[in-house]
Write a structure and sequence with these properties.
about 300 residues; six-stranded mixed beta sheet; alpha+beta
Length: about 300
């Protein structure tokens, strides 16, 4: 019997690199270290290299402090130029994450996609903005207004998303419907000190399971790139748990990092997308005429007012 999940067209796999790192307090040093890791990933064969969320600085959203707005920069700006230079140098595609200063009082958590010739292919501005203990992102970030997007790179169509977007199947589906073959989630997620012992393993499992489900439901590859290390702001701290990973269109984790600094290199057989979607035709069987209520905040029972 033909195993359709194991068969794919003959094509060179796309090699991706996920840069998982601890960060220091100096933005210039963080940028330089990340550029070195991008170069090293390219030297190991990576054609698409992705950074973690807000790689240039510590995760400042643990507290609300106006001085951190000084970390933001325009696009194009110094960081996007540096990413363009390394992309051109190594002839690779780079997905980077940074704190964007769009206008006075308008700031975004933004991903950029840079082509191998250094061209800025486009941006994605984080749509879902959390406001949880030590994740006070609503203080800093305006919700994105570019919608869900996908960009054609030389080897694949890349759908950039960011961290909290990971938990929303709507975001994954709409990005896949734009043609994305890879969903790329730069991430900053970890344990609060009081949570790790009791909930730690379950939290990591839930985080990974949710994203694997996006891979399965949409027949795409998912790349999740997290940071590592303990970061402190005032009396607060987060231990970022790492575990960056790549899941294939069948939801199989085909590469996973540990809880330390690591650049994960993974081969993605893009031919599996069509084979898995043909065997599990979720796109074919969607009832697009029946989903109008998704545009409502809450539906409830028929007699709910």
């Amino acid at each position: 019997m033909l195993d359709v999940f194991a068969v794919s067209r003959v094509e060179k796999p796309l090699v991706v690199g996920l840069v998982q790192a601890a960060v220091g307090t100096t933005n210039a040093a963080n940028l330089a270290a990340t550029l070195d890791r991008i170069r090293a990933a390219a030297d190991r064969g990576a054609e698409l290299v992705c950074t973690q969320e807000l790689f240039g600085s510590p995760y400042f959203c643990q507290i609300e402090d106006h001085r951190f707005f000084e970390l933001a920069e325009p696009i194009p700006g110094p960081t996007t130029q540096a990413l363009a230079d390394v992309a051109r140098e190594k002839k690779i595609t780079v997905v980077g994450s940074l704190f964007e200063r769009r206008a006075p009082g308008v700031y975004h958590n933004t991903s950029c996609v840079v082509a191998p010739d250094g061209t800025l292919l486009g941006l994605y501005r984080k749509m879902h903005i959390p406001d949880d203990p030590q994740y006070y992102e609503k203080f800093y970030f305006t919700p994105g207004d570019l919608g869900f997007v996908a960009y054609q790179t030389p080897r694949a169509v890349v759908g950039p998303l960011v961290c909290w977007d990971q938990w929303y199947p709507e975001a994954a589906r709409l990005t896949a419907l734009r043609g994305a073959e890879l969903l790329v989630y730069p991430t900053a997620i970890g344990w609060l000190p009081e949570d790790k012992e009791r909930f730690g393993r379950d939290q990591v499992n839930a985080w990974q399971t949710m994203q694997r489900s996006h891979a399965i439901a949409n027949g795409v590859f998912v790349l999740a790139i997290n940071r590592v290390g303990v970061e402190r702001e005032g009396a607060s701290s987060i231990e970022f748990w790492g575990h960056s990973f790549v899941a294939d269109p069948f939801g199989v984790v085909i590469g996973e990092a540990g809880e330390g600094e690591e650049t994960l290199i993974v081969e993605c057989d893009l031919g599996r997308i069509d084979r898995v979607r043909t065997a599990w035709p979720f796109f074919r069987d969607r009832r697009i005429d029946a989903y109008g209520d998704l545009e409502r905040r809450w539906v409830g029972l028929p007699d709910d007012s």
